[in-house]
Amino acid sequence: MPRYLLLLHGDADSEAGKLPSPAIFAQMHAYNAEIKAAGALLGGEGLQATSKGARVFFPPPNPAEPDAPAPKADIAVTKGPFDYAMTNPSEGQDGEAKRPVCGFWIIKAADLEEAVGWVKKGPLAGTFVEVREIFEAGEVMSKEMREEEEGWRKELEGK
After folding, report:
1. Are 129 and 117 in contact (CB under 8 A)?
2. Residue 76, number of CB atoms within 10 A of its CB
3. CB-side exposure of 86: number of CA atoms within 13 Å?
4. HEC readout, 55-112
5. Which tens digits make up the pLDDT trace of 80-110?
6. Which residues contact 74 (CB under 8 A, 6 or more apart)?
7. What's the number of CA atoms in the CB half-sphere (13 Å) around residue 123?
8. Angstrom distance (rounded) from CA 81 to CA 49
9. Which pLDDT value is given to residue 8?
10. What span, in angstroms and rounded, lies between the C-alpha atoms of 14 and 10?
11. Any idea what DSSP says for residue 118?
12. What is the pLDDT of residues 46-77, one digit of tens each?
């Protein structure tokens, strides 16, 4: 069954480190419990404000070596907080793209429509959730790489 990453975008309050009210936390807990009870929840967490994070920028590839990673000396790091235009999601995609991610879920769903259905059940207002299907190892990796990474996942799940 496909897996989906649900990216919850925040607002000025979440970016300022203001936590939701206890009532909102209770509603979110009940929502998470519903997804878990259906066997669809694989994980999820809230994220701290960008003031506690960083962005790591990689320059474009060298045309002479398009498959080579960026030289370490050319990688730039910018520590948060980051400047976001906290626009209303109804203002369109440009405003939406400028809002920071403040949490995520990973769920199993039969298809995109089912994943979107789970999002619509969420106790959310004044925000948006980006829904992205996760590549499965077999779609992008050799058999050897896939087997090695499956071993890593089993090892990590056991911790």
Report:
1. no
2. 10
3. 10
4. EEECCCCECCECCCCCCHHHCEEEECCCCCCCCCHHHCHHHHHCCCEEEEEEEECCCH
5. 988 766 555 555 555 455 788 999 999 999 9
6. 58, 59
7. 16
8. 8
9. 96
10. 6
11. H
12. 999 999 999 999 999 999 999 999 999 999 99
| DSSP of 6-47 | EEEE--HHHHTTPPPPHHHHHHHHHHHHHHHHTT-EEEEEE-
Q: What is the DSSP letter of 121?
A: T
Q: Locate tokens 């404000």: which residue? A: 49
Q: Which pLDDT band holds residue 140 (cuts at 50, 70, 90)?
A: confident
pTM equals 0.82
**pLDDT exceeding 70 applies to what percent of the chain?**
91
How far is 68 from 48, CA to CA, in rounded Å?
33
